[in-house]
Amino acid sequence: MSVNRKRKKELRRLQVQANSLWESQQVLVGEAANIAREASRQLGHFGREQVVPSVQAGYGKYAAPYVDKGMQFSKNVLSDKVVPTAGAVVGSALSVWDAANDTRSRLASGRGFAMPDAATYAKKADKYGAQASKRMAQKLRVLDPPKRGIGAGGVVAIILGVAAAIGVVYAAWQTLRADDELWVADDPLRAPDA
């Protein structure tokens, strides 16, 4: 099949126009990629400078007081109530044991039931109870664990950053999807055949 000169000339002109359009689309896609990279970089800055501090401030204002209050309550109950009570019970039991041993030794030696000085034993019991309480408090002290890694605020900030990045990518995809002529073939160096 032969094509006359006029048609060949029109086909060449169309080929030139197609190549020109192809090159302009390559430039357009390159610019869109640059804009997407810059948007991603700006989103990262926004997340670090705006979102993370506001999430941390919100956590510090609303959640942290309740968490700290619960920890303080637990620590206070343990160190102010449980440990001293246990120490006093142990101290009292040991004081009774000492008094029973003293009474037994008095009876064995023939001195009878009379205690020489009840105040002395009361002082010994108090002293021993205080020492036992102190030792138990030191052994059972709740230590604050060292902070490691990111907290709840950091996790929320990461989730919000990922959601924002997904939103930007989705918006770019919707923009490019709407016009089929903006999509570029996989081989950018080869022009379409006319």
TrEMBL record:
Record has Membrane as a keyword: yes
GO molecular function list: helicase activity
Segments traversing the membrane: 149-173
Claim: Hydrolase is one of the keywords in the record: yes
Key words of the record: ATP-binding, Helicase, Hydrolase, Membrane, Nucleotide-binding, Transmembrane, Transmembrane helix
Domain of life, per lineage: Bacteria
Record's protein name: DNA helicase
